[in-house]
Recover the amino acids of this structure.
């Protein structure tokens, strides 16, 4: 079983890519290299011609998915996949805007496939801009296609522990402390009194207290 983890996870995303390519884009999208990448706070990203062939003169786009945000439902995770697939569509058949920008052409295609662009992720948000997410249109093409995919028994099986609520709660319970003299850092519970071991004895009998970051 352990030997199939990589194959199963990447195969699932390839299966989803091929499925939505057929259902939502008429099978017109080119092949891409789907990767799992942690990238700041992004749920995913599209990078045109990020890969080149080692033995042949060819290039491939990268469609990356961030496993740190897989603590959501399969429907929401795959809506991110289709969000990025819409960028693939625009690269192939439209006019790409500047890097990272979401323009009116992309927004119109998003709504056509059943995802409503919004910078807030909710109704009423801006549909274009540098940082734009989306929400699923109820009863729209994506929602219908995902329901169809579910009937095949499709499921995503892995997520990053960074999206584990218990770990997030534990991380939130720790505060960063910094020595004002040497800059050394330490982490502890809020309201803890810490003494810097490096600067404890400065030859003048003064004890250096580490201060919490606000």
């Amino acid at each position: 079983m352990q030997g199939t983890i990589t194959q199963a996870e990447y195969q699932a995303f390839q299966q989803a890519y091929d499925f939505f390519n057929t259902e939502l884009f008429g099978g017109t999208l080119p092949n891409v290299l789907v990767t799992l990448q942690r990238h700041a706070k992004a749920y995913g990203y599209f990078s045109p011609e990020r890969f080149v062939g080692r033995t042949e003169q060819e290039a491939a786009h990268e469609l990356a998915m961030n496993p740190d945000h897989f603590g959501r439902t399969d429907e929401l995770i795959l809506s991110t996949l289709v969000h990025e697939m819409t960028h693939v569509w625009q690269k192939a058949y439209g006019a790409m805007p500047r890097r990272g920008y979401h323009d009116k052409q992309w927004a119109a295609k998003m709504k056509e496939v059943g995802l409503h662009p919004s910078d807030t992720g909710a109704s009423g948000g801006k549909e274009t801009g540098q940082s734009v997410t989306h929400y699923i249109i109820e009863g729209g093409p994506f929602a219908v296609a995902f329901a169809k995919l579910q009937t095949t028994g499709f499921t995503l099986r892995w997520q990053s522990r960074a999206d584990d609520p218990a770990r997030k709660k534990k991380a939130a319970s720790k505060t960063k402390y910094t020595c004002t003299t040497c800059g050394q850092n330490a982490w502890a519970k809020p309201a803890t009194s810490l003494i810097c071991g490096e600067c404890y004895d400065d030859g003048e009998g003064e004890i250096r207290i580490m201060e919490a970051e606000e």
